[in-house]
Amino acid sequence: MRVVHESDGRSETLANDVETADSFLSQAKGLMFRRSIPDDYALAFRFDDVDARDVHMVFVPFPLDGVWAVDGEVQRVKRLSAWTGLGKAEADTLFELPAGSASDVSVGDTVRLVE
């Protein structure tokens, strides 16, 4: 599985090492208590509906890029600082990536999981 970013007819892979957080427990834990993640990694949270989805960085000692999407269309992109970062937006899919991975992603672009 990959995370793919599409914009202006261009397509780029943001991550090839993708883990999904589909259960309540895996979604609640997220990336807490990990020391680091690989450069080519993403954690994808898939939800059954669109709702306000929040991210906190408590017990996450490294910065992340958060990408909130509805039907693949990016709603928000935010750099989240280690330990204290917070973010919230409407989404049916939320991606957490290493800081800098989503630097070229903008609201209105497409970011999606590809099997």
Automatic annotation (TrEMBL):
<dbReference type="InterPro" id="IPR038695">
    <property type="entry name" value="Saro_0823-like_sf"/>
</dbReference>
<dbReference type="Pfam" id="PF02643">
    <property type="entry name" value="DUF192"/>
</dbReference>
<dbReference type="InterPro" id="IPR003795">
    <property type="entry name" value="DUF192"/>
</dbReference>
<protein>
    <submittedName>
        <fullName>Uncharacterized ACR</fullName>
    </submittedName>
</protein>
